[in-house]
Write a structure and sequence with these properties.
Shape: globular
Structural class: alpha+beta
Strand content: 5-15%
Number of strands: 6
Helix content: 25-40%
Largest sheet: 4 strands, antiparallel
Distance between the termini: 24 Å
Number of helices: 6
Radius of gyration: 16 Å
Length: 196
């Protein structure tokens, strides 16, 4: 485990500096590109954030607003890389369109996650990372799109697991070189043991 659990809003400037270095390769940091675009997308304006929030019907956490306006509009970050707020295309890439957080709900009418879950990034196969826009501290959620069966009377919440107590902790885990999956598995095991 990293020191991510002990971070507070007072540490956000340091977190943003670290995220910027990891995203753009500044200060000797080596950005992990993997299946990410060659470079993150440029930051968005506050007006673009507000437009996205109007579309979503929820305000983004202040930390996430700062990530999008000060670092970039996705294309860097944990697991599959943060989704963008505005639609982005990547020419000469194996996937033409980068995932857009504001379009996720439009792509799944009637069976997708609640509007109060903001899509952060894909987690592989049918797993997706979200942040709750309504819960205190904005916990990060790991959702399995195949983890619930409507025909059995289940709803999207049945495919949900809490992965990190806060967006801040999730981002710090990645910024400190930790694995957000390890953190998620610890949280899931804790939740399961509390149920037994």
């Amino acid at each position: 485990m990293t020191g991510a659990t002990h971070r507070t809003a007072a540490d956000d400037d340091a977190l943003l500096e670290r995220l910027h270095a990891l995203a753009w390769g500044a200060g000797g940091a080596i950005p992990s590109r993997g299946s990410l675009p060659d470079m993150p997308f440029p930051p968005v304006t506050f007006a673009e954030v507000e437009h996205a929030e109007q579309k979503l019907g929820y305000r983004l956490p202040e930390l996430l607003r700062r990530v999008y306006t000060e670092i970039g509009d996705g294309g860097f970050g944990p697991d599959g890389g943060l989704a963008s707020l505005i639609p982005r295309s990547i020419p000469h890439w194996h996937v033409q369109d980068w995932p857009c957080a504001t379009a996720v709900h439009d792509q799944r009418p009637g069976w997708g996650p609640p509007a109060s879950w903001f899509f952060l990034t894909g987690g592989g196969c049918t797993m997706e990372w979200y942040v709750s826009l309504r819960a205190i501290d904005n916990p990060v959620l790991l959702w399995d799109a195949d983890g619930w069966v409507p025909e059995w009377g289940q709803n999207p919440h049945d495919g949900l697991r809490y992965a990190a107590p806060s967006l801040r902790q999730w981002l710090w885990t990645w910024a400190d070189g930790g694995d957000v999956w390890d953190e998620a598995l610890v949280q899931i095991k804790k939740d399961v043991s509390n149920c037994t």
